[in-house]
Structures are given as structure tokens and as C-alpha cells.
UniProtKB/TrEMBL annotation:
Coiled coil: none annotated. Transmembrane segments: none annotated. Residues 15-92 form the HTH arsR-type domain. The keyword Metal-binding does not apply. Keywords: DNA-binding. GO terms for molecular function: DNA binding; DNA-binding transcription factor activity. This is DNA-binding transcriptional ArsR family regulator. InterPro entries: ArsR-like_HTH (IPR011991), HTH_ArsR_DNA-bd_dom (IPR001845), WH-like_DNA-bd_sf (IPR036388), WH_DNA-bd_sf (IPR036390). Pfam families: HTH_20. The lineage of its organism: Bacteria, Bacillati, Actinomycetota, Actinomycetes, Kitasatosporales.
Amino acid sequence: MHPHHPNRDQICLENVLAALSNPMRLTVVTVLASGGQHPCGSVLSGVSKSTLTHHWRVLRDSGVIWQQPSGRENLLSLRREDLDARFPGLLDAILASAENRPQPVGAGAGVGAAAETN
């Protein structure tokens, strides 16, 4: 089964904002914003596989990330070009704001919020 990636014109602002409202997912986006592809297990540490899978699905289904299989793992990358084309300046504003926010203490900071924001 291949993961669902919406086409550029199917990316909805409300889905992107909902996906980025979770502190763990926002942290993922700040890591991916450095560019390139990142193995899914290297982006967040100290988080259960089921929690990571949930966050990847939310980010992927909202059109924020690409998730591509590579051997036994998946590679993640930010859909920056698509997001910038759909919502010019939005990602830059979110990333700038994320730089100034206090970092969650420990991996558990966003786990409870994940269930609530979905």
C-alpha cells in the first residue's frame, strides 16, 4: 500500500495549519526545512514507533511532507516547493515563529497533544 500524498492543488490551508499545530510535528518540519531527505527514525528521538507513524501520516496526508520508501525505512522531506506555491510566505512565517518558541521538555511534550489535535 502506497501512502497518500495529495497533489499540489489538493493541499488545503486548514489541513496544513492543523498538522503544524502540534509541537512534535512542528519540530519535524523545522528539522526537514534544512533540506534533503531524512530517515524517518532520525528526525525525532525518544518517541514510540506508533506515535511517529501517526505524526508522519498527519503530515503526509496534509501535504506537508513527502514520505518515500527506501529499503527497510522511509525517507521524509519537506514539500517546500508545493507549500510555497500554494501559500506564499506561510512556511517562512511558521518557521520563523518556530525558532522563537520554547522547546518542549522531553519527547512526551507533544504526545498527548497529538491525540487532541487530530
